[in-house]
Each structure stands twice: as structure tokens, then as C-alpha cells.
Amino acid sequence: MKRELHCLQYGEQEIQYQIVRRPRKTLEIGVELDASVVIAAPEDATLDAIEAKLRRRAAWVTRQQRYFSQFLPRTPERRFVAGETHLYLGASTG
């Protein structure tokens, strides 16, 4: 599979998307759980045709990205400090 990274300007927002070329007949636009956009395209599809389809679906894409971004982890990355207590299998350790 060949992956291509591209960017589309939609109003003031920039939609970054990844194109995955596959042996298929139709174009599929998907928004992943991490709010990234992946487009599964036929191997012979032109970039202009792909961007035209993405422009038509851009409102839906941004709506999906906003929805999925509310579930992204908001907790800071854990740091293990000496003397700190952590839970392991529901019991406090340390």
C-alpha cells in the first residue's frame, strides 16, 4: 500500500489527510478515532478528483473531527517520581 500525505484548505481550517491507494472502484473518506483523515482511493484516481470529493465532504469531516477530539486523552503523560504512590491492580503501591 502506498500512503501519501496531503493538506486541503477549507475556509480558515486546514484538513490534513492521508491517501491510501488500493485496488478498488470507489473513494472512501474516513475519520479515525484520533481525528485523522484517511482516504482509501482507487489506484488510478487523480489528486484533483480526490480533493474535489473531500471538498464536498469537508463540512462532515470537520464535524467528525470535532466530535472525536472530545474523546482524546486530556491527562498529561505520566511521570514516575521517586516516593510517589501508584495503583497496581487496584491496590496502592509505593
Summarize the structure.
The chain is of the alpha+beta class and 94 residues long. Helix content is 23%, strand content 37%.
Please mark out the parts with pLDDT under 50 across 5 or more consecutive residues, or reply none: none
First-residue to last-residue Cα separation? 47 Å
How would you classify the helix and strand content by structural class?
alpha+beta
What is the count of β-strands?
6
Placed side by side, the strands forming the largest sheet appear as: 1-2-4-3
The share of residues in helices is 10-25%
| Mean of residue pLDDT values | 88
Shape: elongated
The radius of gyration is: 20 Å
List keywords for this structure.
alpha+beta, 94 residues, two-stranded antiparallel ribbon, four-stranded mixed β-sheet, single chain, 37% strand, 6 strands
How is this structure best described in words?
The protein is of the alpha+beta class and 94 residues long. The chain has helices at residues 47-56, 58-69; strands spanning 2-10, 13-22, 28-31, 37-42, 86-88, 91-93. Helices cover 23% and strands 37% of the residues. The strands form 2 sheets. A 4-stranded mixed beta sheet has the order 1-2-4-3, with helices on one face. It has a two-stranded antiparallel ribbon with strand order 5-6. Strand 1 (2-10) and strand 2 (13-22) form a beta hairpin. The model has no long low-confidence stretch (mean pLDDT 88).
